[in-house]
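re: ur msg from earlier - yeah i can do the magnesium ion complex, just paste it... oh wait u already did. ok heres what im feeding in:
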Amino acid sequence: MKDLGSSPIRKIVHVDMDAFYASVEQRDNPELRGKPIAVGGSAARGVVAAASYEARAFGVHSAMPSVTAKRKCPELIFVPPRFDVYRAVSQQIREIFAEYTPVIEPLSLDEAYLDVTKNLKGMEVATEIASEIRAKIKQVTGLNASAGISYNKFLAKMASDLNKPNGQAVITPKNGPVFVEALPVKKFHGVGPATAEKMHRLGIDTGADLKEKTLEFLVENFGKSGPYFYGIARGIDEREVKPNRERKSVGAEDTFLQDLHAYGPAREGLQPLIEKVWAYCEANGIGAKTVTLKVKYADFNQITRSKTASTPLSAIDDLEDIVDLLLSPIFPPRKGIRLLGVTLSSLGRQTVAMEPQLRLAL
Ligand SMILES: [Mg+2]
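and the outut:
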């Protein structure tokens, strides 16, 4: 039970590696240093998984289609990802975190929240913990990390961006509400482009605008996210740092600015989602058997279509094939499509096929 009245202000650190995959590649291959590189495929439907800071200067960023990236930066060097190496580095980083606290919540291979309120070193000052961790990461891996320190997850996450790369920032309880008021909502963690657009239409462009809205208004317009937005507009976020979350599924979805009616644009819209969930599975050694396609129509009616393979998917092509199979029968759609999502479930460990690779019976 919570001890009313005496719970201390929490100390949360968000650690985020700088341009992680790209930095690992530049670390391991001196020829790539100082050059604009993108980790990811250069193929027609490829997507940038990570961009070096030299590439970012050209406007290249992660999740951008490789074709677009190449146009923005003609000398861009594409490097195929090496997830086994990223996983190993990630493990080294997590071991460093674990010297300070067992309360670690990884968000991905290169990012984690740490609750250091009660830490294993008995250190009082969270900013000192963050500095030490970053120095150790540099010493052990040769890579730069940035950190945000605050009294909740939302602000710690926002703070880690403030002095990136290779820096850290603190947001205190005194500064939190003021910081949020001045912040454009499109920069909020948890507000994607479609939500930002919707907020804009509702006259909400900054944290201050968001703070003016009632809880009822936010729930009416944003459903489950309403209370979260209401809280963060005030610098309040009660979510706990949850260690070792076991994933039951891996999914990604996107709301489109304009409703889709044709197969082509819908398939195109799904590609970055496919790449995202696949990259997550590869990065974490997860094998999945069930693929679920979610379709939300303009009238907010929603359908899902699933297919379960007999063995875990072993290549992104298999995932693409299943998505195609699930997607095509819904065309022509009865209404415009406003959202598409792909979720993988029935998760297990990825296994290397010992027999000739089994293609899925479609
Ligand atoms: Mg990062």
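cool cool. The two ends are 52 Å apart (CA to CA). ping me if u need the other ligands too
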